[in-house]
Specification:
- The protein has helices spanning 2-43, 49-65, 71-91, 96-108, 112-125, 130-150, 154-167, 172-184, 188-201, 206-218, 222-235.
- With 247 residues, the chain is mainly α.
- The chain is elongated, with a radius of gyration of 26 Å.
- It is built from eleven helices and no strands.
- Mean pLDDT is 87; it is low at 1-36.
Length: 247
């Protein structure tokens, strides 16, 4: 009797494993087919400039219109747009519209360094476009974030922060980045001046308050540090200054 039960359980287990393998196989096949389909679709576009430009514009338009699609599908559309625009750029690298579209596609796909290069190129060849200047400003800000937080290079970050502020000296997000970069460079007095400027212009700038609290902690001004973190937590209770623990 015990042997029969074991056999039944083994049979049930084998069936479950077989079903798992089958479902995994179907899933892999579907993903492979989708990938091959996308590759084929890209390859089928004629190699001339206009065809590649048009295909890229279609892909980026579909990306913008399909906001309800899953992230994988939207990424595929962006990737396709970038591929087509890059192919078009290999044919004519001085096309004004293409330069703008390529910069936008890079930005949307979070390729901020490439977006920066595209917008800077546009500014050199066709200066005076306010829309491109604004795009370049926010791109400089994203590059500054990458240098500050990903590369841990506050000096390099400040270079891009300065470039961004030269295009709009009143951008509060960029000013807060300046305050953080100054703190990372141990220029605490300047950091506080900038962060307080942000808070004055936006009394709900909770992250700026948190950063000010951290700067005060580094200066061993604990009461001021506690004051600013309380201000921040009144706006967003999730914020914290771990440097104040035990003080």
């Amino acid at each position: 009797m015990h042997s029969i039960m074991i056999k039944k359980q083994m049979k049930k287990f084998s069936w479950s494993v077989w079903m798992l393998i089958l479902m995994t196989s179907i899933s892999c096949k579907t993903n492979t087919e989708k990938s091959e389909s996308n590759t084929k679709r890209i390859a089928e576009v004629p190699a001339d400039f206009q065809s590649q430009l048009h295909a890229g514009m279609q892909a980026i338009q579909a990306y913008r219109e399909n906001k309800q699609a899953d992230s994988t599908q939207r990424k595929e559309l962006l990737d396709a747009a970038v591929i087509h625009f890059e192919k078009a750029s290999q044919i004519d690298s001085t096309n004004q519209d293409l330069c703008f579209l390529l910069g936008n596609a890079y930005y949307l796909s979070s390729s901020y360094y490439r977006a920066m290069n595209a917008f800077e190129k546009y500014n050199r060849l066709w200066p005076g476009n306010a829309g491109v200047a604004n795009n370049l400003r926010v791109t400089y800000r994203e590059v500054a974030k990458a240098e500050l937080y990903n590369e841990n290079n506050p000096l390099s970050a400040k270079t891009f922060i300065d470039k961004s502020l030269s295009l709009n000296p009143n951008d509060l997000q960029t000013l807060e980045l300046l305050g953080v970069s100054m703190a990372r460079l141990s220029n605490f007095d300047t950091a506080l001046i900038v962060l307080k400027q942000v808070i004055e212009k936006n009394p709900k700038a909770a992250t700026a308050m948190t950063n000010a609290s951290i700067v005060y902690t580094k200066m061993d001004m604990i009461e001021e540090a506690k004051k600013y973190i309380k201000m921040a937590q009144a706006i967003d209770p999730r914020l914290n200054n771990p440097m104040l623990e035990g003080k």
